[in-house]
Every structure is written in C-alpha cells, then in structure tokens.
Amino acid sequence: MAVDKLGYYIVIEGNDGTGKSTQIELLAEHFRELGREVCVVEEPGSDDLDKSTPVANELRRLIKNGNLARDPEINLGLFSAARHELWCKKIRPALGCGKVVLSSRNYLSTLAYQGRGEGVDEAEILRMTRIFTGERYMHPDAMIVLVLGDAARRERIAERDQLDNPDTFESREQTFQDRVNQAYTDIAKTYDIVTIEVDGLPAAGIHRKIIGHLE
User: Is 81 exposed, middle or buried (0-12, 13-18, 19+ CB in 10 A)?
Assistant: First the structure.
C-alpha cells in the first residue's frame, strides 16, 4: 500500500457496537509493524488524557451525557466544534508529517445521527463540516463502514454500563436506532463507500477484510 509524504488518512465508521475501536487498534498495530508512524483519532474526542485536544475531550463528555436534553442543531454545533480542534491540532499536523491517521468516526456519523436520526438537513451538515475543517478532511484516503444487524448491535450495547450517565445516542428509542442503522447503509451507497458486514465475524476476520480493501 503506497503512502505518500503527506500521510494517509483512514476512517472506520459505523453505528455504536460495530467494533470500530477494536479495528482501529488492529490497524495501528499493522501499520506500526510496517514501520509507519501512526496517529489514532476518536471523534468527537477522547476519554483519555490527550492534552493536544482538551476542548474536543470536554465536548465529548458533554455530547455523551444523555442527561442533558438539547436540540439536534446544538448537537451539530458541538460536533463541529470538536471536529475543528481535532482537525487543526491532531489530524492535519499528523498528515503533514507523513503519519498514518486512523480515525474512529468522521462526519459520516453526523450525517447518520444528526441527519437521518435527528432530522438536520444534510446540506447544512456538510456546509458546517467544511467551515470547521477542510477539503482534505472531507475526502479521506479510505473510508470503511462496519455494518451490524439490529439484534447483534443491541446485544453489544446492552453489555455496556450506562446506568449512571446514559449515553445520549445509545439510550435513544429503537426507532431512532433503526433510522441510524439504515442511514449508514444508505450513506455508504450514496458516497460509494465500502461496507463490511461484521455479524458473526471474529475481530481478526474483519481486520483481514479491511486490509484487503485498503490494498
């Protein structure tokens, strides 16, 4: 796989519970074994102590707090602000240094959750994203969407403990989840993005499929 001096930007997308973080970890190990420097990004921010994106990390905690009711347009604004810092402070500099950037989620999530799930106009989401990032962000070198059936996804989500602070989107009603699930399939078709069905596949098997598509 050719990687130019401007780096390589790979996005793994999909609904909650599809195993994005696991696949990002496996990809990071893969590229490091090839001798590449790797930068891992999680949108809308990280739970860890990454000091390079403190605003995005704080916004993540706010976004994930299901006890705070808010309008869909506010969610779009929060995601856009977090995205701006991730792009300016982490993704763009890493690409400029020739690193491989591996991102769990990008604006496809906003198209799915805020667009199809919450009813925000898709053109407005794209406009806001361009304002807060740039064309290089809008067009990664590779995007792959992981798709998981409703029953399997619900089972995985149920294993997570959200009792004290329910996740804003994982705790939404089933009709919302159905819209988001279908949105990922529709968006992938519209933007000609590779999808991988992950039902019943072990993590290693999914990883091999991702590598196959990247190559």
Answer: middle
DSSP state, 167? B
The pair of three-digit structure tokens given for residue 179, joined into one six-digit string = 């819209």
pLDDT band at 1 (very low <50, low <70, confident <90, very high): very low
Cα gap 175→100, rounded to integer Å: 37
Question: What's the rounded Cα separation, in Å, for the pair 204 and 208?
Answer: 6
Q: What is the pLDDT of residues 176-205, one digit of tens each?
A: 988 999 999 999 999 999 999 999 899 999
Give the end-to-end CA distance of the chain in Å, rounded to a whole number: 6
Domains and CATH numbers, the chain: 8-214 (3.40.50.300)
Q: Give alpha helix (H) positions in the chain.
A: 20-33, 54-64, 72-86, 92-96, 107-110, 122-132, 135-138, 150-158, 174-190, 203-214
What is the dihedral sign for C-alpha 208, 202, 26, 88?
A: positive
pLDDT of residue 72: 96
* 214, 10 Cβ separation under 8 angstroms: yes
Tokens of 92: 């763009």
Neighbours of 209 (CB within 10 A): 17
Which residues 6+ apart lie within 8 Å of 215 measured at CB?
Answer: 1
